[in-house]
């Protein structure tokens, strides 16, 4: 396997020495140049539980993330990058911020957090409960959230530019709302989006979602359908998510990335980005 160490800053000599002590039988000299951009690649590494525990300890100490990937894997081996929106592509949970405009952010956020940790098993029920609390809110709150609160996660735009330049298609698939995904699609030149539609009548939210709710099963289906549309196999998809409702689409992919994710997601993902930005995806692979 290739061991890729991803730093948030260039590596220092003591940090490189720590890595060498961890893998004394592996020659890192040819890869030291990568240290200047915060990445070190070490070939021929055997993944063991002991090594991974040591990497977790060093990662927490130095704010590193790491990945163990098959040697020779390239980004262009993949055809699709699919990603969650809330707390993944963007820093906020849109439903929580909308709820802030009717004084219910704490209540809605508690439901969101429990759902993302997997403590509420029925995503449909959790979304229905949260949206119901928004009944009667002026729809203008959606625009205020988009303009005033929506921010991209670190490295999000660079990551998208990088994968698009290499010919990969992009899919934004969200348990959030079309109000936001439809605005992000042209802004980020995304190929496709899938999300929930809030019902609005006379300029007010009705507290209902129209049509099929985009839950874990629908997310996974959206990834498979997008793969079919572009003539790719699911193992040619990279999926990025943070919550338990992302697990099914992550399991369907050839590579899954847990971004600032809940523990249940980190435990099941191929790679966890706890410190680095989304653009670290571009540093994972052989040139």
From TrEMBL:
GO annotation terms (biological process): L-serine biosynthetic process
Pathway: Amino-acid biosynthesis; L-serine biosynthesis; L-serine from 3-phospho-D-glycerate: step 3/3
Enzyme class: hydrolase
EC numbers on record: 3.1.3.3
Family matches, as Gene3D superfamilies: HAD superfamily/HAD-like
Coiled coil: none
GO molecular function, one term: magnesium ion binding
Record's catalysed reaction(s): O-phospho-D-serine + H2O = D-serine + phosphate; O-phospho-L-serine + H2O = L-serine + phosphate
PANTHER family named in the record: PHOSPHOSERINE PHOSPHATASE
Protein name: Phosphoserine phosphatase
Organism: Pandoraea thiooxydans
């Amino acid at each position: 396997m290739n061991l890729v160490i991803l730093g948030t800053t260039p590596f220092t000599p003591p940090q490189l020495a720590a890595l060498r002590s961890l893998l004394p039988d592996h020659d890192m000299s040819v890869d030291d140049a990568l240290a200047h951009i915060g990445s070190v690649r070490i070939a021929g590494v055997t993944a063991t539980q002991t090594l991974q525990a040591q990497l977790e300890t060093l990662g927490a100490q130095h704010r590193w993330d790491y990945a163990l990937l098959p040697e020779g894997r390239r980004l262009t081996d993949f055809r699709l990058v699919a990603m969650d929106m809330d707390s993944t592509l963007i820093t906020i949970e849109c439903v929580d911020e909308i709820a802030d405009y009717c004084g219910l952010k704490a209540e809605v956020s508690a439901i969101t957090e429990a759902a993302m940790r997997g403590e509420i098993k029925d995503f449909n029920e959790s979304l229905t409960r949260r949206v119901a609390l928004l009944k009667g809110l002026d729809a203008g709150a959606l625009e205020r959230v988009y303009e005033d609160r929506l921010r991209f996660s670190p490295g999000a735009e660079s990551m998208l530019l990088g994968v698009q330049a290499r010919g990969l298609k992009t899919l934004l698939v969200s348990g959030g709302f079309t109000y936001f995904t439809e605005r992000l699609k042209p802004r980020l030149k995304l190929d496709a989006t899938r999300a929930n539609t809030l019902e609005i009548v006379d300029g007010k939210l009705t507290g209902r979602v129209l049509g099929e709710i985009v839950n874990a099963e629908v997310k996974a289906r959206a990834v498979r359908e997008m793969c079919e549309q572009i003539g790719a196999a699911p193992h040619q998809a990279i999926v990025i998510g943070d919550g338990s409702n992302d697990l099914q689409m992550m399991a369907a992919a050839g590579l899954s990335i847990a971004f600032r994710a809940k523990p249940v997601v980190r435990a099941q993902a191929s790679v966890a980005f706890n410190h680095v930005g989304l653009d670290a995806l571009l540093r994972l692979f052989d040139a």
